[in-house]
Amino acid sequence: MEDYRAGSLFQPSNLAKALEDTMDLSSGRSTHLMGTFVSIPTPSQLARWQPIDAENLVRLIQTVSLSSKGRTVPICRVPSAQSHLLTYALDAGAGGIIFPHIDTPEQAAEAVSKCRYAYSNGDRSLAPAVLVPGVTDVAPSGSSHERVADENIAVIIQIESPLALDNADAIAAVPGVNALMLGAGDLRVAMRCPPRQVGDPEDPKILDAIERLVNVSRRHQKPLAGVTFKLSGKAKTWLKDFQLLIVTSDYWSLVKGHKEDLASSLE
């Protein structure tokens, strides 16, 4: 991701371009991006997971950007396009925003609009208080920090209902949508599939939904994102058609590590 960094580490890296390049085999760039979930805001909360508030959200985003020197891009999943956390995430320098429960192209267009300034036909509000001259407002000659943000921030739409699946083509065609994300858990429930434990084979209805989503991705050349760390071996075969893979999470790694340590201690 180093080649996609913005002029300032307080600004979002160009995740939109990085995602676009995964679909272009002639670019010579990586065809896959890897990521992890971070959901434990402070060490004191390791024993009790809870939602991240605005203050911790900003701290996490900036810590990821600064400590990695821009080589790791923070992506934030917000509750909705109307959530106050969206503004905090954008102003903190998030490189991508995941919008859950998007069912229609109109909802997808609203999500894009909330992430773009009026220069790009959006309605994102300018926050002068977060602009530090020479630090957070840097931009190439002839551009501006607003245009840098509009070009770099990736809008990722979660597909996690039968209605969203039916509208996936129209959602993918919305200008400004950079990627689609499979919300397998909610989609499984919405389709009334039997509950699934980690390692269980996937329901045929979900596999059919994934195939439909892959075809949408190919038609519109939009990358697909998905969570991999709860899948078993055979279930992972369809991941070859996904470009942004969330391969672990902090809480899941803790649980898995404790289980493995306990098992080894009893051998």
UniProtKB/TrEMBL annotation:
Q: Report whether Cell inner membrane shows up as a keyword of the record.
A: no
Segments crossing the lipid bilayer: none
Q: By its UniProt entry, which SUPFAM superfamilies does this protein fall under?
A: Phosphoenolpyruvate/pyruvate domain
Q: Which domain of life is it from?
A: Eukaryota
Cite the HpcH/HpaI aldolase/citrate lyase domain residue spans from the record: 62-221
Q: Write one Gene Ontology MF term.
A: aldehyde-lyase activity
Name of the protein: HpcH/HpaI aldolase/citrate lyase domain-containing protein
Starting at the broadest rank, the lineage of the source organism is: Eukaryota, Fungi, Dikarya, Ascomycota, Pezizomycotina
